[in-house]
């Protein structure tokens, strides 16, 4: 059994009573009762039981006295939120309890409460000081560049981190941007320029969206990695460089190799270790850590920002289709709108508020899971909205649908057009 209640400090107490294991969670929360609720295992399921608490117990925003829990349920006791997981895989070397305070002095980007991701981050920390090339894979906005900065910080390399957006450089300028050029190499080349690769000498070259690199540029870049030399456009003498590469992609590089869109030899050079970063909707355990980090950048006095419970519920139940980039924009706007007041639902975008409204209409406080076709529909819609920068007419033409139907799908999936209109190329 697990009992949860108010205490003078956050504390975890393990004990045995009548041969059964007991876990007591004491939380420094004045809105929580001394003995607020119990979690009891019944057969192979867990049941939440309110123990006549003063302010009640809530499951996914709905008040409850007794309810069977499902994986991913959000429990609210007082002003404290708990995310229920049926199982969290761990090995014997990992601690049973983790305190978020332990992450405060760490390097941003490497903090997580997810055991599997924590193991990957430990591997990354070990590899950071080596020459092993790392590929960070995941949806747009999952924090790949933040993690690349963490890898560079741990590497001990004295040179800078130079980020290259491989999909943003025009094909005609890729070689001159990457390799630099000599004065007079082409019209407008009025002086020597080192290029991005030589600028990263002694440091880390971060190749963002490497899957967008054209084939002809892949050949030239492969030569750089093999020979550790760069020949500027218009030059004849190669120049030695000392770089460590870290790449990021939202594509499946192995699939691109199979399709002939990405060279096998370059893939083998850049993918010494591949880390798939989960989307934000699969990291709800980490929302508190991530929000705390973002507030440190967004608010001059981030520690003084407070949240009303309704806003926290919305944050925990929204899917964040654009991941951390969307969360950061949402927080930045909400902090300004809230001013010195507690941050509430009225300060959040309509898409986040609508997610809570949809949850409130469910009879058991749980949203109906999306079907496979709905998941595919949402993914296609998000991709097209991102491609067309929130232009509904353009999305409607691409899908052969009426604009009103696109707006229905946008509302159904809790999307907000302004999030896509601000998305950079």
Walk me through the structure.
The protein is α/β, with parallel strands linked by helices and 425 residues long. The chain contains 15 helices and 17 strands. It has helices spanning 115-127, 144-155, 174-179, 195-199, 215-227, 253-258, 264-270, 287-298, 309-317, 323-338, 350-360, 372-387, 392-399, 403-412, 417-421, and strands at residues 2-6, 11-17, 20-27, 37-42, 45-50, 57-59, 62-64, 66-68, 74-77, 80-83, 134-137, 161-165, 204-208, 229-230, 239-240, 244-249, 273-276. The strands form four sheets. The protein has a six-stranded mixed β-sheet, with no helix packed on it. The chain has a five-stranded parallel β-sheet with strand order 12-13-16-11-17. β9 and β10 (80-83) form a beta hairpin. α9 crosses α11 (350-360) and α13 (392-399) packs across α14. The longest helix is centred in the last third of the chain and has 16 residues, at 323-338. The relative contact order is 0.09. The model has no long low-confidence stretch (mean pLDDT 86).
Query: What's the total helix number?
Result: 15
Largest sheet: 6 strands, mixed
- Calculate Rg over CA atoms: 25 Å
Name given to the CATH homologous superfamily of the largest domain: P-loop containing nucleotide triphosphate hydrolases
The pLDDT mean sits at 86
Total number of β-strand segments? 17
How helical, in percent, are the residues? 25-40%
According to CATH, what is the topology of the largest domain? Answer: Rossmann fold
